Amino acid sequence: MTPPPVTDKAAKPKHQRMGVSEAMDLAAKAHQPSLSGRSPLPEFKPFTPDPVDASSEPVKTAADSGRDIRQIALDLIDENPYAPREVYSQEVLRERADSLRANGQYEVIHVIPHPDKPGRFMIADGWTRVTACRVHKVLDALAAQVHHDLSPMQAAWLGYNQNESREQHCDLDRAFFFDKMYAQGQTQSEIAKKTGISQTQLSFYTAFRKLPEETLQIVRLNPSRFPAYIAQNLAKVARKVSEDKASSLASIFSSNGQSVNWMINQCSLLLEKEPRSALKQKVGKVFRYSNGVLRQKGLQFDLSIEIDEADQEEFNKALDQLLNKFGKQVSTPVAGVPEQEQ
């Protein structure tokens, strides 16, 4: 059988309004198939080329001239360390496995030769299908296009673009993928150009890494409920109010189905209230004595005390020692105070 028809360009993400990345340019040159995932061909024909060993000659047809397509055993395919997805729910894996079992493989996966392990491959696009087949024991091998001219990072960008075209990313996926790119030296400006997301919008994605671990685990369980601006509000609550409050809000929002407006309002109400720790700092401490009182407000101390005449000389010496140690000398004259008293 022949593979699905190919187009002259790889599908672009819905929000991409700027140029495509280097990896996408390479993919376009390789004539990637359209991967909408939502508009199957009129006549559905699963893509199942004749089985061949991964080390044998690749399968080529007239429609695929120049493309290296072959069946590759799943145990020869490794994950990409820069993978664009973080979340693979059990539900998604089960649905993908059921589809493969019922309909066969419709689209090729994309791999590159492993840069450090000869004879093995690294995934570029299709890790969900690989994982679904492994977990649910559907297939032992998948039809794959091997890209010989992509680095692991370029392969990851290819996978990112394909996932965006299928609308399979959540903001948590994007956030951690962008963090991987930052760690490899890519700038926010470069990522903005490759994705079509403004630098201002990209800054929202950094909120996920600021979430407390407990809150982040709640987000991972239901990531589609937590867009980046919700994560940013939760991060503020965790920092300015308490981590427990952020986790509690995230749990309620995730499981009870409240609206986004409800969540934003709850965060705003908490952030408008002064944190309990700040209130305590303003109230301060009061030390009462039989002859006076010492008040502490944050870093400020106010002393009002009456000293017996017989003890004044000793008190003055002790006070001088204390002030000489902790007091800061005035460098300029104070208006209305004689110089000898400063």
What do these coordinates show?
The protein has 342 residues and is α/β, with parallel strands linked by helices. A five-stranded mixed β-sheet has the order 1-5-3-4-2. It has a three-stranded antiparallel β-sheet with strand order 6-7-8. The protein is built from 13 helices and eight strands. The protein has helices at 22-29, 90-103, 127-136, 152-165, 171-183, 188-195, 199-205, 213-221, 228-240, 243-256, 260-272, 276-283, 312-326, and strands at residues 68-73, 77-78, 109-113, 121-125, 141-146, 285-289, 292-297, 300-305.
Mean pLDDT: 79
> Major sheet: size, sense and barrel closure?
5 strands, mixed
Characterize the overall form: elongated
What share of residues is helical?
A: 40-55%
Label this structure with key terms.
43% helix; 13 helices; five-stranded mixed beta sheet; 342 residues; single chain; disordered N terminus; three-stranded antiparallel beta sheet; alpha/beta
Précis, in short:
By secondary structure, the chain is of the alpha/beta class. The protein is built from 13 helices and 8 strands. It is elongated and about 105 Å long.
